[in-house]
Amino acid sequence: MSYDPDNVFAKILRGEVPSTKVYEDDATLVFMDIMPRADGHVLVIPKTPCRNLLDATPAQLSACMATVQKMSHAVMTAFGATGVTLQQFNEADGGQEVFHLHFHILPRHAGVSLRPPGKMEDRAVIAANAEKIRAALAG
């Protein structure tokens, strides 16, 4: 399978599709999920093309995992979470829907279930949650 440069995350990277960016460095971008399963649900993607874990380079994986760790701490702080769930899907049969490597980070609280997938969140709520994460990153 080859990488599709017209996938929605590639379009976000090129600025063709809007997103609520929370953090970026030379190798990765972090933005809010528009259908969050928990408050503070973010996505981490590499800035370079790859479909998923199966074709990613070690450098892409290393950069993503460093950002995943940084953002996991930030979302836990921002939302007073006591844990974090990391999700990552590969190929259609593995549950992948957007074919650009991405990691979901979901802050978690004891006794609180994840919301069902597929429900769009209000933009104002997403923006407010992004600001909480940015504040946590700023220290």
Strands, helices and their partners?
Blueprint: H1 8-13, E1 21-24, E2 28-32, E3 42-46, H2 58-79, E4 83-87, E5 103-108, H3 123-138
Antiparallel strand pairs: 1-2, 2-3, 3-5, 4-5
Helix pairs in contact: 2-3
Describe it.
By secondary structure, this protein is of the alpha+beta class. It has a single domain (8-138), classed as HIT family, subunit A (2-Layer Sandwich), CATH 3.30.428.10. Helix content is 32%, strand content 18%. The protein is built from three helices and five strands. The chain has helices at residues 8-13, 58-79, 123-138, and strands at residues 21-24, 28-32, 42-46, 83-87, 103-108. The chain has a five-stranded antiparallel sheet with strand order 1-2-3-5-4. Helix 2 crosses helix 3. The longest helix is centred in the middle third of the chain and has 22 residues, at 58-79. The protein is globular, with a radius of gyration of 14 Å. 31% of the residues are buried. The mean pLDDT is 98.
